[in-house]
Amino acid sequence: QLQLQESGPGLVKPSETLSLTCTVSGGSIRSSSFYWGWIRQPPGKGLEWIGSIYYSGSTYYNPSLKSRVTMSVDTSKNQFSLKLTSVTAADTAVYYCARQYSLNWFDPWGQGTLVTVSS
Amino acid sequence: QSALTQPPSASGSPGQSVTISCTGTSSDVGAYNYVSWYQQHPGKAPKVMIYEVSERPSGVPDRFSGSKSGNTASLTVSGLQAEDEADYYCSSYAGSNNLVFGGGTKLTVL
Fold first, then answer.
1. Which of B5, B97, B100, B105 to mutate to test the interface with A (most CBs of A within 10 A)?
2. Distance between CA B51 and CA B54 in Å, rounded?
3. Mean pLDDT by 10 residues, chain B (110 residues)
4. Chain A residues touching residue B91 (CB < 8 angstroms)
5. Which of A94, B19, B81, B89 has the most CB atoms in a 10 Å sphere around its CB?
6. Looking at the DSSP assignment, which residues form a beta bridge with residue A59?
């Protein structure tokens, strides 16, 4: 079945750029039926949608993060990526990637990766 | 866009039913039938339980049901079981290619 796995540094310094990659296995990222999304969850807090990308490269970002977010897709590697610039401690969170249906609901999700912003 | 409003906590005894609300606005919950609900156990990734207000993915017990009235969506868990104890989050399409989540509800099975 489809599986997603996040990867990237677990520690990022303030003001630097957070970079994560999601590798999709068990299915193609080129499917016309789905989008691919990033969601984050600060420790002990709720979920926040970061943004989504279509295999063609079309992107959709949370307005509150739009100025700092860039998402990209590499269909040859079946991966999509997230970059978040100028990070602060408030960006410390578990970051999840997930398959998204019609810019709507997410299923399945990756296991998540904790990114801590600290000097 | 603001987060959807959920009660911080809910509880019920085994076998009982509990309903969790998710209140938005006429720009998100009230405007679209694109409300979904997620269950999250501690240390685990969220799992979709309901999508498009009341649809259940394959494998989700029919004890879980969803509905919507106006700007408020609801998740009802019937016949509560110990394993239903978890955090629950709602989300809604909010127009202009935006998505918003609720703040989450901690469900306790007494």
1. B97
2. 6
3. 92 97 97 97 97 97 97 98 98 95 97
4. 47, 49, 105
5. B89
6. A53
With contact defined as beta carbons under 8 Å apart, do A39 and A98 qualify? yes
Per the prediction, chain A carries an average pLDDT of: 96
User: Dihedral of the CA atoms A87, A19, A64, A32 (nearest 10)?
Assistant: 180
Q: pLDDT for A11-48, tens place per residue?
A: 999 999 999 999 999 999 998 889 999 999 999 999 99
Confirm or reject contact between A42 and chain B (CB < 8 A): no
Asked if B1 and A63 come within 8 Å (Cβ–Cβ), the reply is yes
The residue type at B5: T
Please give the span between the terminal C-alpha atoms of chain B, in angstroms, as a whole number: 35
Assess whether pLDDT exceeds 90 at residue A103.
no
Copy the structure tokens of residue B67.
């509905």
Provide the token pair at A22: 């999601």
Task: Burial-class residue B14 by CB neighbours within 10 Å (0-12, 13-18, 19+).
Answer: exposed
Query: Two tokens at A21?
Result: 């990659």
C-beta atoms surrounding A14 within 10 Å: 12
Rounded-to-integer distance, Cα A51 and Cα A69, Å: 8
Chain A residues touching B89 at Cβ < 8 A: 46-47
The C-alpha atoms of residue B50 and residue A9 are separated, in whole angstroms, by: 33
Residue of A nearest to B96 (CA): A60
Tokens of A74: 């590499």
Q: Are B94 and B30 in contact (CB under 8 A)?
A: no
